[in-house]
Specification:
84% of the residues lie in helices and 0% in strands. By secondary structure, the protein is mainly α. The protein folds into three domains: 231 residues, no CATH class; 188 residues, no CATH class; 80 residues, no CATH class. Helix 15 packs across helix 16. The chain is globular, with a radius of gyration of 23 Å.
Length: 504
């Protein structure tokens, strides 16, 4: 569709929505945790992890494929309608098989045998969740493929708001974990309907039902490879929760999931960039503009690393305060797990956009090998460390797995043909982080009341980090230009003058 045109505007459309959904998550998570309790929250976390992994062969047959191939904007008349129609059929076919298999397994009592009493009832709700989620995913990714980020963003906010508002009301009404699952189902149904309306209004229904000939074999080949790719990638942040629950108990899993949820908040910008780059870089790959892909990937890698480092440098010294204030005193036991997860989370955040760029090339074999190596290492370490060290072992295994994903993805990217570390500037970034850590750590130790510390430390750290990044050249004038252009005239001139001498 739009390729990389107006990339910042399209990023901001998704980013503003992601900020809104992250705020909703930040506000709602402690409420959900307190209403469900550590054990109930642990069971809920396991259900979401099982759902996410189970949905991979169902939704991955559709989502990235429809987004990529609709986004290629080929000149063939009816191409978009043919792609959407094809993926609609695939979506219904794989959903029918997947939902039926899950229902049969649930009626056979397998969930309760594996996780404990009560999980059979939960899995009945998962069947409905699978159905609703498939249609929501098809609609949302088609909207993205059409280049309508300004619409997809609000849809994600509707989904999140509906989930937490309905879920919390039902949990408060005494429905527990099933209430949260019902919130997910209701919100997904609403978003699926809204996305469907948007898509139908932009397509010719006649062409959908009477499409031209398209390379179905190429589309299917991409789908099959993508299922394996997504399964391997998603296992990195769900296997630990499932294995921890199976090998320990619900309370321990709840504490660990609390730490994991905090770490995952660092992903909100990388997730937006990942969603944007898959279809945005498909045009570059289709036109064989590899140098442009390298330039884009290099800049994205550096900017994402800087942003996530900023958040991590602020979070690490205050981790104990965050866990106590956010979840309650009993969750302080998970502080060590959170600190262990942070290095891997930084690496994983940088890897996510690179994965999307590599997917846009259509060469998934190299990427699948990279994801397979990281996933295999993650599973092996979790199996080795959880029985001995519990949630601390899970944190170590997961952090190493996250880090290996970045390393393996960089290797895969080079084999595909682009070089994501071409503009990294590691020394300048390290100096920026080190300079910022000094006042952040010092202020955190000096300021006693938690609320006062949270009001002072993050903004001071943010200002120091930005000044240090500009002074060291970790950020240059070209990085800042898109932001400067949106400032009022006199401020734009001042910032432009201050950054004019910065050289990468």
């Amino acid at each position: 569709m739009s390729g990389t045109a107006n990339l910042l505007d399209r990023f901001l459309s998704l980013a503003s929505a992601k900020v809104a959904t992250t705020v909703l998550a930040v506000l709602s998570t402690p409420i959900i945790v307190r209403l469900l309790g550590p054990t109930g929250y642990g069971d809920y976390a396991v259900l979401l992890s099982v759902f996410s992994l189970y949905m991979i062969p169902i939704s991955a047959m559709v989502t990235e494929g429809v987004q990529k191939f609709v986004g290629e904007d080929r000149d063939d008349p009816g191409w978009t309608e043919a792609v959407v129609g094809f993926y609609g059929v695939v979506a219904v076919a794989v959903l029918s098989v997947g939902a039926l298999l899950l229902l049969v397994a649930t009626l056979a009592g397998l969930p309760s045998r594996f996780f404990g009493d009560g999980f059979d009832r939960y899995f009945l709700f998962l069947v409905a969740f699978v159905i609703a989620s498939q249609f929501r995913a098809l609609g949302s990714h088609t909207v993205l493929g059409l280049g309508l980020e300004r619409i997809d963003g609000p849809l994600s906010v509707v989904n999140k708001f509906g989930t937490v508002s309905i879920g919390i009301l039902l949990v408060a009404g005494g429905y527990g974990v099933t209430g949260m699952l019902a919130g997910h189902i209701a919100a997904n149904v609403v978003v699926a309907v809204l996305a469907g309306v948007v898509v139908v209004r932009r397509l010719s229904l006649r062409r959908v039902f009477d499409p031209p000939t398209i390379p179905y074999r190429s589309l299917l080949s991409f789908n099959v490879m993508n299922v394996g790719l997504v399964l391997l990638s998603m296992s990195l942040y769900h296997v630990d929760v499932i294995m921890l629950r199976a090998l320990t108990d619900g309370e321990t899993t709840g504490f660990y999931k609390g730490a994991l949820a905090i770490a995952e908040y660092l992903w909100f910008v990388p997730i937006v960039v990942q969603r944007l780059l898959l279809h945005s870089t498909s045009d570059l790959w289709a036109d064989d503009r590899v140098e442009a892909v390298t330039a884009l990937s290099g800049r994205v890698t550096r900017q994402i690393l800087l942003f996530v480092l900023l958040l991590s440098v602020g979070l690490a010294p205050m981790a104990n305060r965050v866990m106590r204030l956010y979840y309650g005193p009993e969750f302080v036991v998970a502080t060590t797990a959170l600190l262990i997860l942070l290095p891997g989370t930084i690496a994983f955040s940088v890897a996510r956009p690179l994965k999307a760029i590599a997917q846009g090339s259509g060469r998934l074999r190299e990427l699948a090998v990279a994801m397979g190596a990281a996933a295999g290492l993650n599973v092996a370490l979790n199996a080795l460390l959880i029985p001995r060290y519990g949630m601390t072992g899970a944190a170590v295994a997961t952090s190493v797995g996250y880090g290996s994903m970045f390393a393996f993805t960089v290797v895969a990217a080079r084999r595909i043909g682009f070089h994501p570390l071409s503009d990294l500037r590691p020394v300048r970034i390290a100096v920026t982080a080190g300079v910022t850590a000094v006042p952040v750590v010092g202020l955190n130790r000096l300021l006693a009341p938690d609320v006062f510390a949270f009001a002072v430390v993050p903004p001071v750290g943010g200002v120091v980090f930005l000044v240090a990044a500009v002074a060291t050249g970790a950020l240059d004038g070209e990085d800042l230009d898109p932001v400067v252009e949106r400032l009022p005239g006199r401020y734009a001139d001042a910032v432009a003058s201050a950054t004019a001498r910065i050289e990468p």
